[in-house]
């Protein structure tokens, strides 16, 4: 008799919650626009912790099944995914590419922040301020917020006045947009942070650059990205 078996992994609680909620949407029980119960009520209903519910909701949001409005509730997306989507296990374990882009971002962008603090001009500061103003205006608009987020990080690279830094960040633009969307979801749903708190982090980085404090600018940028990395590790450990 062959002794080779496929190892059986215990199913994560968030995977089970995700699968059940997704089944209710697919069956039509939860129709587009339907408002889901609160995180607290779902946690009680599934008899799991709130963090487990948030992980499942975060994944369903990323997969296109839910629309999570910060402070406004969780709704079934008006337009449901038409393409095949990864199953729950794939979503929570597919972290390698995201982790790689985070690693690149940590070391490139902390260096960018430091050099930007050293070399920034008044025009650079004006451009960064304009982006921060836009981030405040579109705080409740997820897509516009993500776009402003990307522009903020690209503008810091431009403030270095180093052609290679700028080219590297430009070449990463598409990956940056993807990773920032994931980063924001992890930030909001695992850390229970708000758009306002995220804005404050960006403002702190800006202030260090404006004051030409190279060490602080680099430190704040690194801390900004390390937090997301730590959340990712917690979410994907079984």
From TrEMBL:
One GO molecular-function entry: DNA binding
Protein name stated in the entry: FadR family transcriptional regulator
InterPro entries linked to this entry: GntR_C, TF_FadR/GntR_C, Tscrpt_reg_HTH_GntR, WH-like_DNA-bd_sf, WH_DNA-bd_sf
Keywords: DNA-binding, Transcription, Transcription regulation
Residue span, HTH gntR-type domain: 11-79
Residues passing through the membrane, by range: none
């Amino acid at each position: 008799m062959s002794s080779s078996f496929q190892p059986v992994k215990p199913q994560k609680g968030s995977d089970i919650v995700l699968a059940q909620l997704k089944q209710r949407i697919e069956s039509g029980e939860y129709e587009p626009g339907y408002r889901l119960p609160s995180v607290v009520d779902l946690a009680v209903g599934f008899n799991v912790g709130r963090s487990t519910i948030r992980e499942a909701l975060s994944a369903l949001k990323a997969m296109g099944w839910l629309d999570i409005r910060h402070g406004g509730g969780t709704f079934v997306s008006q337009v449901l995914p038409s393409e095949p989507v990864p199953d729950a296990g794939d979503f929570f374990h597919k972290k390698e590419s995201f982790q790689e882009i985070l690693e690149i971002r940590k070391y490139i962008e902390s260096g960018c922040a430091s050099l930007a603090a050293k070399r920034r001009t008044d025009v650079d500061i004006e451009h960064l301020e304009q982006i921060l103003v836009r981030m405040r205006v579109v705080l409740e608009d997820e897509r516009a917020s993500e776009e402003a987020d990307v522009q903020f990080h690209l503008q810091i690279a431009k403030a270095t006045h180093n052609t290679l830094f700028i080219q590297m960040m430009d070449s990463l633009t598409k990956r940056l947009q993807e990773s920032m969307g994931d980063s924001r979801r992890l930030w909001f749903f695992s850390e229970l942070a708000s758009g306002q708190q995220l804005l404050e982090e960006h403002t702190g980085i800006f202030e260090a650059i404006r004051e030409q404090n190279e060490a602080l600018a680099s430190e704040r940028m690194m801390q900004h990205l390390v937090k997301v990395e730590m959340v990712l590790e917690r979410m994907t450990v079984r």
